[in-house]
Amino acid sequence: MKKLLGLIFLFLAVASHAQFPDPNAKIYDPVKWSFSSEKLNDKEYNLIITAKIEKGWHVYSQFIEEGGPIPTSFKFQPSSDYKLVGKVTESPKAVTAFDKNFNMQIAWHKDQVVFKQKVSLLVPKTSIAGTLEFMVCNDERCLPPAEVEFTIAIQAGSAQAEMTASEPESDSTSSIVSSDSASKTLLPASTNSIQSDTDSSSGSLWAIFIAGFIGGLAAFFMPCIYPMIPLTVSFFTKKSGSRAKGIQSAIIYGLSIIVIYVALGLLITLIFGASALNEAASSATFNLLFFVVLVIFGISFLGAFEITLPSSLVNKMDEKSNQNGFVGLFFMAFTLALVSFSCTGPIIGTLLVDAVSKGSYLGPAIGMLGFSSALAIPFTLFAIFPSWLKEMPKSGGWLNTVKVSLGFLEIALAFKFLSNVDLAYHWGILNRDIFLIIWIVVFGLWALYLLGKIRLSHDNEINFLSLPRLFFSMLILGFTLYMVPGLWGAPLKAISAWLPPQVTQEFDLYSNRGTVPAAAAGTSGKKYSGLFHAPHGLDAFYDYEEGLAYAKSVNKPILIDFTGWSCTNCRKMEASVWPDKEVLRRLREDYVLISLYVDDKTELAEAEKYVSGFSGKKVNTIGQKWSDFQASRFGTNSQPYYVIADHEGRVLVPPQAYNLDISNYVNFLDQGKIAFGQK
């Protein structure tokens, strides 16, 4: 009879789930682990742990600092039969990139990665057991961290070590259940945080090129270059003898500028190497160096001193520029690059620093391609159309204004590199408040300078404000005022990627505005209420059974929110969709919210621990419990995931995942309420 009832219950559960099939619901198992050993000598062996990763997915490296996604880690059971020699190594070298969502450098592996641990045997024969923990993500979702237990049998002295390794407890679901590692910081990547290797590199290189192009346009309007345009164009039109030859000379001159600066970018890569550039992107030493360099460049632009090249080098290039033909034009372009270095040097330095910080070996060359293109195109166009020179603004004090403005901008950007180091090493010096104060002061002084309220020693007196100057001063002053509420905790979404995280804010009134204290909201007596807190003052439950029982008592449908402590997409939904007044009203009035954290590491009470009938794995933590519940009940294991259900746990409408369309979410909630009313 019990078996019959069980079959009937299973049939009803499957039927209720099939009523609203979710086309995106899927159990993902993108990583296959294998275990073996490699003999080094009669007593020493390498334990070899290999992960084969499906295309489009990646497993994180062991070497990720605290505050990022969970790294791959290994625990070997202590034994008197062997001792570990050194630490676990991994190959090939991990792919690295800076992730703005985590505000740190992260590293991951794709396709395949091999981990090796050297061991020394103290007995003739033994079995080495252990557990590995890993996290796998793709461009759209991250799976909860999973644990894999293994055992490798080794016999000393044998030519080929015997290997017996246990597969994950349930191979088809090895990536479903969370683990109980000591690590408490789990951060599933967002949709945009880590892209595939190709897409990420492509997007980064385009960003570097555009930044270089903008830098080249800025350099074009510097005092060292802008006044030279009429002289250079006059040289082409008069010395060439004919307009056709003048155009040809101008094109060669422009191409020479591009070749010279791109060669500089390639030289940077060749000198330091691709690996050094990748290390520079995450190195505290390099980030501190970048900070100092940019501050020096900024002070130079403010007029404290000029950065120049040796005059002998400039004179030597100038002599060679007198030669006829292509060689003369090339060295003429080289002379321009050297003579204008006092103006362009800080811009070039900033671009190279930015390119290196992105860790791309092509970055410096691409940045210089953008810079030189913006610099070469105007020279070439003015030589082809010399009549355009009449429309150019005359040289004057405004050129120095451009130079000083870039100085303010470089000083502001320098603090981003200092912030990177401060966050990575948890110094706590440059928190969000201090960072904003620095930016407000810098941009405020910049606005006052443009308005003529501040004059530097080399500035001319301003008798009136030109329209461009007034426009830019209004823009910068407006940006300065925009940042001021951030001192009280305003999120400042437009520049949040540049700021230290909100949690570093010491004086934060905004986050507490409109929230309801836990006791007032009735959360103090709820299970796990001391561990979790819902955003926007929502009265949420953190245990499914408890939330379901309360929903029955108030006759409301439940909204199950499968989330994670550091799920970036979950936070984006909570910051962008949930605060909407229509969404928030529905969440408060129409539903009982049950937030289930699939990555929490809190141990369950002994009586609550169990072995999953779905995956066959041990469930020891809160996170494992809700991860197993999500996978077994709803057939998916990615977050965020929102399910509307009735008092029997039956799904009322198709579940929703990550979608920032507010109207879609409102419709989702409305349809769920209607469906519940029709039951």
Class computed from helices, strands and strand pairing: alpha+beta
- Kindly report the average pLDDT value: 74
| Global outline | globular
N-to-C terminal Cα separation, in Å? 29 Å
Work out the helicity level: 40-55%
> How many beta-strand runs?
17
Q: Round the Cα radius of gyration to an integer and report it.
A: 31 Å
Main β-sheet, spatial strand arrangement: 1-2-8-5
Q: What's the story with the biggest beta sheet?
A: 4 strands, antiparallel
Report the portion of residues in β strands: 15-25%
Unreliable stretches, pLDDT < 50, 5 or more residues? 1-25, 159-201, 512-523
Offer a concise description of the structure.
The chain is α+β, with helices and mostly antiparallel strands.
Write up what this structure looks like.
This protein is an alpha+beta fold. Helix content is 44%, strand content 15%. It contains 17 helices and 17 strands. The protein has helices spanning 2-19, 197-220, 228-239, 243-282, 284-301, 311-320, 325-339, 341-357, 363-384, 397-424, 432-450, 467-483, 544-554, 568-576, 581-589, 622-634, 662-677; strands at 31-39, 44-53, 58-60, 73-76, 82-91, 95-99, 104-109, 112-121, 125-134, 136-137, 146-155, 540-541, 558-563, 592-597, 610-611, 618-619, 641-645. The strands form five sheets. Strands 1-2-8-5 form a four-stranded antiparallel β-sheet, with no helix packed on it. A four-stranded antiparallel β-sheet has the order 6-7-3-10. The protein has a four-stranded mixed β-sheet with strand order 12-14-13-17, sandwiched between helices. Helix 6 (311-320) runs antiparallel to helix 7. The two termini are 29 Å apart. Mean pLDDT is 74; it is low at 1-25, 159-201 and 512-523.
